[in-house]
What we know:
Strand content: 15-25%
Number of strands: 8
Shape: globular
Order of helices and strands: EHEEHHEHEHEHEE
Number of domains: 2
Amino acid sequence: xxxxxxxxxxxxxxxxxxxxxxxxDFVLWNxxxxxEDILDYYIYKNKNIDISLEDAIRLFHGVYLNDIxxxxxxxxxxxxxxxxFKNKWYTLKxxxxxxxxxxxxxxxxxxxxxxxxxxxxxxxxxFNYSLDEKKKRLKSEICNELWISIMIEDNFxxxxxxxxxxxxxxxxxxxxNKHINIDxxxxxxxxxWKDIDI
Length: 198
């Protein structure tokens, strides 16, 4: 049976936070912010940044909708490693927290940087403009529907949810998960893509 690997998009393939910070001259709501200052994946929960959930949603949508030239950078080593997996005949899919209202942009960005690599992209519809909870899906629910056993992620909460549903998860180290000690047999924290060995 073909092994299927699921891969998150933002901060795993695309350096979205860096683009947001650059687009805003490293100032968010009158606060000077560096990447290292973002200590919670949910940017609106950072104690040092005064931003609401609604403003955070506008911030992320803004970067997707204004990135006409698809300039969001690719995460270091992701392209090399993903090609390595593809050459081993793994099936590769993306599951992202993004809402489906940025589906066209997302597909264009993936096609520019990872052309003909991913079999499909699935949207969990978190951070949707309407804040409609009914549209949201758990990543583990999407993965389990398609018998996925491996995930590459950067959000500890998602990684834990996946791990508790028997999905082995590589957690890429980022400022928002660096301080978290992990003690779960289905989660392996790695410094970078270079450390992922499947």
